[in-house]
Each structure stands twice: as structure tokens, then as C-alpha cells.
């Protein structure tokens, strides 16, 4: 039987993490197989981490906050396009403590540490990018191919996607900046978001993107970033590229 790494359903833990958080995280496991899968591929999918009911209620909350305070990002260069709506970490901390509690729960970092075999998983000092709400909903919206600035990213999905919707998480495991220019289509992994599921990935070795939205629907994801040490510097101008609003 796999070890249960994060069981947040017992009464005491629920109290520690907040009542709703206790309901939210059912179980994240770090079995030998999942560690091995992560070691080999640099990513791991955990299904139904958040219950459907909670997910539906969180999706509404995410959409309301994105509507009230989100920024529309529209960046287009010859090689890539970034078009989506984002809520950054400072706003989440202030307006949605329940989600912030999930992000900052020591149990989540322990699980990342177990699965990745990395000691010292920290909370990022860059609150703006540490946790976001991403909303893509119009045909043509896309989150460009990129590597992350920090190694560990947890993506929590609050919506389901159908293949006809677009909005796949696409990634090339074990890529690097040199190879990213010439990656063959057959090596590409496609993950269709399912609400309540979570992807843990080393974003510095998985080249990834959100594929273009093909028809109107609400794709809601919560990216959370966890550095291996607290004090890594972010590339200059990255935050202004990602978060400065469309003119
Ligand atoms: O929403 C997703 O599936 C991925 C988002 C992403 O890559 C990011 O926020 O860096």
C-alpha cells in the first residue's frame, strides 16, 4: 500500500489548516512509483486532490476575483504569444486566505520534497509570482512555451477541458534551452485539465505551455511556485513581461 504523505482529513489537521482546507486535500501520495515517475519525467499528475464540490465553489471564487481584480495580459512577439487573465499573489493573500493557506501549508512542501527528493523546499519570496490565478476563456488565448524560473511548480486545475476546448497543458519532459528550439512533435505530452487534479513539475526541465483556447469556456488554473532554496533570483524583466497589463 502506498504511504499516505498528506492526509488532511483527520480532525486535528483540519483545524490546523482551516476547515475548508481540511475538506479540500484528500490525499497526496508519494509512493515509490510516483517518485520514480517524477525522477524519470520531471512531472507527476495527481488526480482528484480537491473534491468536486469544493472545486466548483473555488472556481466561482477564482472567476469573481479575476473579474474584479485580474489583469489582462496581451503580449505578442514573432516567436510567442501570451494572452490570458491573471491574479497575482498579493491579491490572493489578501482576498482569498483559504487558497493562500493551501499554498503555504507545510504539508504541501513536505509532499513536494518527498516526491522530488529535494530537501529545503521553500516558499518563494516573490509573492507576485508565487501563486497566481490564471484564466483563459476566449478563442486564441494561449500561454506561450516557456521554462519556469524556479524548479517546482504545482498546477491546481479548477476546471475541466474537452479536447474541442483546447487549453491542453503541453510539455516536453527533460528539455533544456538549447534543445527547446528543435523539439519534435512526437515527444510532446498533452494533458487535458481535469478539475481537482494537480500537476507537480520541475518547470526548469519541462518546457511547457497552454495550447490555444479553441472555443469559449472558462479554463481556470492555480500555478504555485516552490523554489528549492528561498533566495534564488528571478530573471530580470520576467515579472514585467508576465504581469504588466495590456496597454
Ligand atoms: O495553466 C497551466 O496549465 C500552466 C500555466 C503555466 O505554465 C504558468 O503559469 O507558468
In short:
This protein is an alpha+beta fold and 247 residues long.
Tell me what the structure shows:
- By secondary structure, the chain is α+β, with helices and mostly antiparallel strands.
- The chain has one domain (41-243): Jelly Rolls (Sandwich).
- It is built from nine helices and 13 strands.
- It has helices spanning 11-17, 19-24, 32-41, 52-69, 89-95, 97-104, 106-116, 127-130, 238-243; strands at residues 4-6, 28-29, 43-46, 71-76, 81-87, 133-136, 142-146, 152-157, 169-172, 189-191, 198-202, 207-210, 219-226.
- The strands form two sheets. Strands 3, 4, 5, 6, 7, 8, 9, 10, 11, 12 and 13 form an eleven-stranded antiparallel β-sheet that branches. Strands 1-2 form a two-stranded antiparallel sheet.
- The longest helix has 18 residues, at 52-69.
- 2-oxoglutaric acid (AKG) binds at residues 134, 143, 148, 155, 169, 208, 210, 221, 223.
Fraction of residues in β-strands: 15-25%
**Into how many domains do the coordinates divide?**
1
CATH architecture tag: Sandwich
Number of helices: 9
Order of helices and strands: EHHEHEHEEHHHHEEEEEEEEH
Helix content class: 25-40%
Residue stretches low in confidence (pLDDT < 50, at least 5 long) are 1-17
Give the helix/strand class: alpha+beta
Largest sheet, in brief, is: 11 strands, antiparallel
Distance between the termini: 54 Å
Radius of gyration: 17 Å
Going by CATH, the homologous superfamily would be q2cbj1_9rhob like domain
Overall pLDDT: 84
Q: Find the CATH topology.
A: Jelly Rolls
β-strand number: 13
Amino acid at each position: 500500500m502506498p504511504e499516505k504523505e498528506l492526509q488532511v482529513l483527520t480532525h486535528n489537521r483540519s483545524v490546523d489548516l482551516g476547515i475548508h482546507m481540511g475538506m479540500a486535500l484528500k490525499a497526496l501520495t508519494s509512493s515509490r512509483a510516483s517518485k520514480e515517475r517524477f525522477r524519470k519525467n520531471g512531472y507527476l499528475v495527481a488526480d482528484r486532490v480537491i473534491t468536486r464540490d469544493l472545486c466548483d465553489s473555488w472556481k466561482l471564487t477564482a472567476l469573481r476575483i479575476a473579474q474584479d481584480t485580474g489583469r489582462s495580459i496581451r503580449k505578442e512577439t514573432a516567436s510567442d504569444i501570451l494572452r490570458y487573465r491573471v491574479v497575482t499573489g498579493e491579491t490572493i493573500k489578501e482576498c482569498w486566505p483559504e487558497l493562500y493557506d493551501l499554498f503555504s501549508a507545510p504539508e504541501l512542501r513536505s509532499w513536494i520534497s518527498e516526491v522530488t527528493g529535494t530537501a529545503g523546499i521553500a516558499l518563494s519570496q516573490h509573492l507576485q509570482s508565487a501563486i497566481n490565478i490564471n484564466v483563459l476563456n476566449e478563442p486564441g488565448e494561449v500561454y506561450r512555451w516557456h521554462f519556469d524560473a524556479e524548479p517546482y511548480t504545482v498546477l491546481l486545475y479548477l476546471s475541466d477541458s474537452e479536447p474541442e476546448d483546447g487549453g491542453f497543458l503541453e510539455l516536453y519532459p527533460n528539455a533544456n534551452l538549447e534543445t527547446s528550439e528543435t523539439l519534435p512533435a512526437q515527444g510532446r505530452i498533452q494533458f487535458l485539465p481535469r478539475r481537482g487534479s494537480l500537476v507537480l513539475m520541475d518547470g526548469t526541465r519541462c518546457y511547457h505551455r497552454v495550447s490555444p483556447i479553441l472555443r469559449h469556456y472558462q479554463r481556470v488554473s492555480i500555478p504555485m511556485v516552490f523554489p528549492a532554496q528561498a533566495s534564488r533570483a528571478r530573471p530580470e524583466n520576467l515579472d514585467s513581461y508576465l504581469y504588466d497589463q495590456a496597454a
